[in-house]
Write a structure and sequence with these properties.
mainly alpha; about 10% strand; 7 helices; single chain
């Protein structure tokens, strides 16, 4: 019996989550994460990929943390000298976050150990062709739709998030509707 598209999509999603869970458990060995947690590393890694300091809201779009949790984590990382806050030249009320030299060094150190473990976990299960296909499929799943940044909110032509227009209440007629 052939599965419906809905069932196939849900089975594929469940397989993806299960694979993620199994690999993440394997990658959570204490010796890799003695200096920073996996979540802290995610923040350091994300910042290491940026050419310029980021606003907290931009960083929040790229990591799996709530805004309050990310804010607290940035405070802790700043207190440890791994990230710095600089005034946002475009918005005096805002700040931008970047890695310090110590943060960049810590990211490279932990990242080196982590990448060896990732390679071992993935290459022990998949062939080169399967890894290529997995990368292609995950890239396709992660791709933004037109006008959508990674977070799913609308963006302008430069990819910056924009505000959604306020929703019009249902059953309220405008002058345009009346004509």
């Amino acid at each position: 019996m052939e599965r419906s598209t809905k069932h196939l999509a849900n089975d594929a999603w469940e397989a993806l989550l299960t694979a993620h869970s199994v690999i993440m458990k394997q990658l959570s060995t204490p010796d890799t994460w003695d200096d920073v947690s996996m979540r802290e590393y995610d923040v350091l890694y994300t910042l290491s990929k940026c050419a310029a300091p980021m606003r907290l809201s931009e960083l929040n779009e790229r990591v799996l943390l709530s805004q309050p949790a990310l804010s607290r984590m940035v405070d802790r990382l700043a207190a440890r000298g791994l990230v710095s806050r600089v005034a946002d030249p475009a918005d005096r009320r805002g700040v931008r976050i970047s890695l310090t030299e110590a943060g960049r060094a810590k990211q490279r150190e932990v990242g080196g150990r982590h990448s060896v473990e990732v390679a071992q976990a993935v290459t022990s299960r998949l062939s080169q062709a399967e890894m290529d296909e997995l990368e292609r499929l995950c890239g396709k799943l992660a791709a933004r739709g037109p006008g959508q940044p990674a977070s799913g909110s609308p963006s302008d032509e430069a990819g910056r998030p924009t505000r959604r227009p306020a929703a019009r209440p249902r059953n309220v007629k405008t002058t345009k509707d009346a004509s």
